[in-house]
Design brief:
Number of domains: 2
Radius of gyration: 19 Å
Helix content: 40-55%
Structural class: alpha/beta
CATH superfamily of the largest domain: NAD(P)-binding Rossmann-like Domain
Low-confidence stretches: none
Strand order of the largest sheet: 3-2-1-4-5-6-7
Shape: globular
Largest sheet: 7 strands, parallel
Number of helices: 9
Length: 277
């Protein structure tokens, strides 16, 4: 119950990592407002959360790219819990497209959701946190914040920008007892990534390869598997809690060790040999 007495706003919380975080927060004693643009899924998720603990969760139908919506979500959180102790910026999208080929509108949309959305929420929530004497912001980035993915310039740029925005917040508002940290998932079996892997799995089948997209994606990861959404929640709950009271500006990879892998070394290992052998 390390979040007992805390009130949190979690964006993109109707499914995937956001939904898992919301469930973890309720189990840890927090009151939460879950925001999402997917109204039906959001209402279903909040009903499930309140079945765990009556009155623990409320829904805020919100577009993270609309600052007025964001201000309303923050206000609804303060009204629901009397304050806003924790902000989790989780909402994100990941359409692909190379620098030359990606439609300009799609580039703007990805940065709008993945970077502007967290900025808008921080801009709206920080004054409320200052009023109450502090708070904790946890931004959900990605391994793509520090590693490049083919044909994903907008996604990688947005997550890299979120990492720097989080650090800037930690620097500027630490004196007001507001902590800002980042959790960066590796490959995780969310609906978003499962959908993205379908085309790769089909392509492998056509090539006669008996592997899924996830098999290929994670075959060089030290743990040799993707994460479940629930495996992100412990890190987020810890950083949100008072147990992390002196952690500010941190970047925590939750990637099964994927960031340790050198692509050249991984290629040699897959060939079944070692360096110089």
């Amino acid at each position: 119950m390390r979040l007992e007495g805390k009130t949190a706003l979690i964006t993109g919380g109707s499914r995937g990592i956001g939904k898992a975080i919301a469930k973890k927060f309720v189990e840890e004693g927090a009151k939460i407002v879950v925001s999402d643009i997917l109204k039906d899924e959001l209402e279903k998720t909040v009903a499930e959360l309140n079945a765990l603990k009556s009155g623990a969760a409320a829904a805020s139908v919100s577009d993270v790219t609309n600052f007025e919506d964001v201000q309303r979500s923050v206000a609804e959180t303060v009204k629901f819990g009397g304050k806003i102790d924790i902000l989790v910026n989780n909402a994100g999208i990941d359409p692909g497209g190379s620098i030359v080929d990606i439609p300009i509108a799609q580039w703007k949309k990805i940065l709008d959701v993945n970077l502007n959305g967290p900025f808008y929420h921080m801009r709206a929530a920080i004054p409320e946190m200052i009023k109450q004497g502090g708070g904790s912001i946890v931004n959900i980035a990605s391994l793509a914040a520090v590693r490049c993915l083919p044909s994903m310039p907008a996604y990688c740029s947005s997550k890299g920008g979120l990492l720097q925005l989080s650090a800037q917040c930690a620097l500027e508002y630490g004196p007001q007892k507001i902590r800002s940290n980042v959790v960066a998932p590796g490959a995780t079996t969310t609906e978003m990534l499962v959908n993205a892997m379908r085309s790769l799995t089909e392509a492998l089948k056509k090539q006669g390869v008996d592997k899924t997209g996830f098999d290929v994606m994670t075959e060089s990861v030290p743990l040799r598997r993707p994460a479940a959404p629930e495996e992100m929640t412990g890190a987020v709950a810890f950083l949100a809690s008072d147990e992390a009271s002196f952690i500010n500006g941190a970047f925590l990879l939750v990637d099964g060790g994927a960031a340790l892998v050198d692509v050249s070394g991984a290629s040699v290992a897959k060939a079944g040999v070692g360096w110089g052998v």
